Amino acid sequence: MIISDTHKYVYIGIPRTGSKSMNHWLLEHFDGRWHGGHHDYDVPQEAAEYLVFTVVRNPYDRAASGHFAVCWDEQGVLTEQELGPCESEQERLRKFRAILKTREKQQQREIPQQSAVPLDERIRESA
Predict the structure, then answer these.
(1) What is the pLDDT of residues 2-13, one digit of tens each?
(2) Of 62, 63, 61, 82, whose CA–CA distance to 71 is shortest?
(3) N or C end: fewer C-beta atoms under 10 angstroms in the chain?
(4) Bridge partner list, 11
């Protein structure tokens, strides 16, 4: 989470939405400071009146990004360790579809994006 007391904003980063890039940009250009962890969702009381915002992403793109990210190393090369030596692209897609259909428990990085930013009365009244 990035907070700026000067500009009175709170940015809540949601995993797999470009949040690391946004964090760096806000820290560098808009007087931001770290508060809590990278994906902390609890706005501190001293910033309760600040503008709270986030960035969202198409849920299917986000799920695909999270699923396939574990298959690539830092140089953008597929890793045999993650894929297995003979796994085809078709097999990976089949597994991904099955995961989307059967997921019962969600990991932190896969929470619904709207869960990250709590709606307060000001937002509810304007909707």
Answers:
(1) 999 999 999 998
(2) 82
(3) C
(4) 2, 53
